[in-house]
């Protein structure tokens, strides 16, 4: 029996995509002051897949970006634009760097830090343009510092995973694990039924409605009108059970308004010490906050993970979500102290590698 090469060329693209979506789900549940701030957990499969051929690697990047938007409910929002730009540019930088610099001169940790900095700088630049204004510069130092730390940690994690993973390195026959294990289903707690259940609504019409309503939001210029639309979309998300954590929505809304208020213009409403709150800055902040959060709520209501795409990308997308469900069913068997070995064991069970002929 010939041992397969220790690369991810035959490792299972759908499994890597599912792992990326699983880590996106974990990161989505971590509270954060700004929704586009991420630890970058979902980039781990991209680091593992740097040896893939270009088409396969960037297909994985595409599924990661789109799947992450469906999970977080941000497809029609500026947050998706930030994620798309940051991930695409950082993935390209990491892929080119891996091709240009031999492994002995740059480790996965160095490549990961580079990708994190490219992503963070891209997102800060876009956040400055779309909703934070010049106040975005205030978050640059801690944002970049967090990128360096999380990027280094992620690179070390991927190095340890690729070195010790049986799924990554071995054929199923060599691991002693079954080729395919049926997922175990734990008894699920009954969920509270929303006032309006969209689970059986065809995803395509919902998606089309979301496109039209997002175009309406972006075509309206008056901040007051955008705020009204935000309230409508928030109510729609609430009655469909997709509003998420209202507290963090309020915090992010407030932070956008405050960042824009740092550069006052227009009629002075009040003064607090040396700070002047002006009508123009306040209305601009409310308009931007209503746009960002309104589009997020609209995405949560109108974009469903059941939406299917054509072609190879669509097939990979569907298979990745199928494997993601299996990962989520087994999440209780994943522990912090044995995270790598637990993930490795589950991947061997739900998506065993096949030997090449």
Q: Overview of this structure, please?
A:
- The protein contains 14 helices and 2 strands; from the N terminus they run αααααααααααββααα.
- 63% of the residues lie in helices and 3% in strands.
- The longest helix has 25 residues.
- The protein has 2 domains: 219 residues, no CATH class; 100 residues, no CATH class.
- The N terminus is likely disordered.
Outline the biggest β-sheet: 2 strands, antiparallel
| Succession of helices and strands | HHHHHHHHHHHEEHHH
- The number of helical segments is 14
Number of structurally distinct domains: 2
Structural class: mainly alpha
Distance separating the two termini: 11 Å
**Nearest-integer average pLDDT:** 81
Principal-axes shape call: globular
Rg result: 22 Å
Low-pLDDT runs of 5+ residues are 1-11, 172-187
Strand order of the largest sheet: 1-2
Estimated helix fraction: 55-70%
What's the oligomerization state?
single chain
- How much of the sequence is in beta strands? under 5%
Number of strands: 2
Secondary structure elements and their pairing?
Blueprint: H1 13-28, H2 44-48, H3 54-72, H4 78-100, H5 108-132, H6 140-164, H7 166-169, H8 172-175, H9 203-219, H10 223-239, H11 246-261, E1 268-272, E2 275-278, H12 279-302, H13 311-329, H14 339-350
Antiparallel strand pairs: 1-2
Helix pairs in contact: 1-3, 1-13, 3-4, 3-13, 4-5, 5-6, 9-12, 10-12, 11-12
Can you give me a brief rundown of this structure?
This protein has 14 helices and two strands.
């Amino acid at each position: 029996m010939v041992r397969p090469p220790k690369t991810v060329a035959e490792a299972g693209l759908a499994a890597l995509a599912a792992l990326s979506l699983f880590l996106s789900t974990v990161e989505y549940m971590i509270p954060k002051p700004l929704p586009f701030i991420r630890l970058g957990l979902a980039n781990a499969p991209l680091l593992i897949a740097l040896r893939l051929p270009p088409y396969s690697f960037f297909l994985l990047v595409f599924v990661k970006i789109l799947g992450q938007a469906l999970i977080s409910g941000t497809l029609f929002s500026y947050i998706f634009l930030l994620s798309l730009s940051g991930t695409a540019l950082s993935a390209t930088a990491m892929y080119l760097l891996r091709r240009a610099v031999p492994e002995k001169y740059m480790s996965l940790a160095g490549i990961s830090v580079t990708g994190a900095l490219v992503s963070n700088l891209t997102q800060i630049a876009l956040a400055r343009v779309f909703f934070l204004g010049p106040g975005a510069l205030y978050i640059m130092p801690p944002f970049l510092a967090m990128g360096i730390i999380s990027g280094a940690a992620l690179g070390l994690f991927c190095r340890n995973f690729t070195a010790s993973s049986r799924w990554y390195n071995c054929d199923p026959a060599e691991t002693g694990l079954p080729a395919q294990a049926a997922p175990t289903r734990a008894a699920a707690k009954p969920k509270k039924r929303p006032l309006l259940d969209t689970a059986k609504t065809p995803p395509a019409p919902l998606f089309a409605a979301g496109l039209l309503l997002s175009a309406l939001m972006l075509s309206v210029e008056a901040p007051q009108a955008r705020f009204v639309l935000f309230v409508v979309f928030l109510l729609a998300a609430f009655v469909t059970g997709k509003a998420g954590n209202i507290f963090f929505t309020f915090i992010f809304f407030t932070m956008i308004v405050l960042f824009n208020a740092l550069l006052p213009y227009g009629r002075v409403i009040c003064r607090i010490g040396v700070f002047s709150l002006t009508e123009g800055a306040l209305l601009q902040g409310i308009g931007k906050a209503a746009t960002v959060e309104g589009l997020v709520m609209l995405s949560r209501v109108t974009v469903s993970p059941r939406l299917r795409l054509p072609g190879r990308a669509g097939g990979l997308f569907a298979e990745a979500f199928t494997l993601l469900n299996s990962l989520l069913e087994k999440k209780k068997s994943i522990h912090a102290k044995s995270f790598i070995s637990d993930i490795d064991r589950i991947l061997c069970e739900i998506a065993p590698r096949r030997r090449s002929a």
